[in-house]
Specification:
352 residues; 2 domains; alpha/beta; 5-stranded mixed β-sheet; Nucleotidyltransferase, domain 5; single chain
Length: 352
């Protein structure tokens, strides 16, 4: 079965053709990084316009590279949530029109489920159930993958996502966007023990994350140094910051796997490309006898192949949409309502 996957949730316009959820026939990504770099981050209006300009040629390229015609496609899968609303609307509108014109089923795909599915492409032997850490610019969570289309969240961020914290800390250190890549590079020549940074925790919610305080700690150290006419060592801070985030992400995931009885752990999302996160997770999984699944670097960021892969399983599960499909900027993967406003006092964020 051939699924055409379309992704436009942020600043990558992507399309791919995947066979039976595992075999990638094509994977085309048009990135906007260089354009957004001058602004220090993604500008939603610009991203939406570029998606509109690029989506047709990207889909055409995906079909061409796969050596298939639209008539040969069994279904069209598209990211409809969550993400930048304007960017999502470009992809969903295009996919609806394409599916209707070609008389093909339309399959709505949750973006986070797509990131998780990237591991199916890299690891044909991987099957649910297992535990997955999803860490990206907009999301950080630990999910039980109960089935290909069934998820249960046991931990999530209460404020900034890990990737967002990387970008904000990088800006303080004078690195350009995207910050995560720049911090990873700088950290290679830095001392990870040079700066002592907090490990924020959420009382009463052992597996929830909070990165806002960690980001603020970097900002305060930089400001205090500046007020004394000093400067911080960017490489050392990058290494210390990266080590801290890696330890938080990996420690919570390993603890959750022990408590919930999982022996298989997967990692997904843009932050799964970070060398320290990958290295520490590999070590901790070896130490605990867990089997680890990591996506190749090319499938860590947003791409159409992961959407097509998840679209295949959603299709088999009977998930369909029609011309009324709408995009959503926020949507939980497990059906629970999103967190709104301040956490209750019983779940306040503290630093350790």
């Amino acid at each position: 079965m051939l699924i055409l996957g379309i992704e436009s949730s942020c600043d990558e316009t992507a399309a791919a053709v995947v066979e039976d959820g595992r075999n990638v026939r094509s994977n085309i990504v048009s990135t906007q990084i260089e354009e957004h770099k001058k602004y220090g981050g993604v500008v939603p209006e610009i991203a939406s316009r570029r998606h509109s300009e690029n989506i047709l040629k990207v889909v055409r390229s995906a079909l061409s590279e796969a050596g298939t015609a639209l008539d040969d496609i069994d279904a069209v899968a598209v990211t409809y949530a969550p993400g930048l609303i304007g960017a999502l609307l470009v992809g969903t509108s295009f996919a609806k029109g394409l599916a209707m014109a070609a008389k093909k089923p339309l399959v709505p795909v949750h973006h986070i489920a797509g990131h998780i599915a990237a591991n199916y492409i890299a690891h044909p032997e991987l099957e649910p159930p297992y535990l997955c850490l999803v860490a990206s610019g907009g999301h950080t969570l630990i999910a039980e993958v109960l089935d290909y289309t069934s998820f249960k969240i046991i931990g999530r961020t209460r404020d900034d996502a890990a990737g967002e914290a990387f970008d904000k800390a990088a800006r303080v250190l004078g690195f350009c966007y995207p910050g995560g890549v720049q911090i990873d590079k700088a950290a290679q020549s830095g001392d990870p023990d040079a700066y002592k940074l907090p490990h924020p925790a959420v009382t009463g919610s052992e597996y929830d994350f909070s990165f806002s305080g960690l980001k603020t700690a970097v900002l305060n150290i930089a400001h205090n140094a500046e007020q004394h006419g000093e400067s911080i060592n960017a490489e050392n801070m990058a290494a210390s910051f990266q080590k801290t985030i890696s330890d938080i992400l990996v420690s919570k995931t390993i603890s959750a796997a022990r408590e919930y009885g999982y022996k298989k752990i997967a990692v997904a999302g843009g932050v799964s490309a970070n060398s320290a996160v990958r290295g520490l997770m590999e070590k901790r999984c070896r130490d605990n006898g867990f089997r680890l699944y990591l996506p190749p670097l090319m499938y860590c960021g947003d791409n159409g192949a992961m959407i097509a892969a998840q679209g295949y399983y959603d299709f088999l599960a009977g998930k369909r949409a029609d011309e009324t499909l709408n995009a959503a900027a926020t949507m939980p993967i497990d059906g629970e309502p999103p967190l709104v406003g301040e956490p209750p006092q019983a779940n306040r964020v503290v630093s350790e």
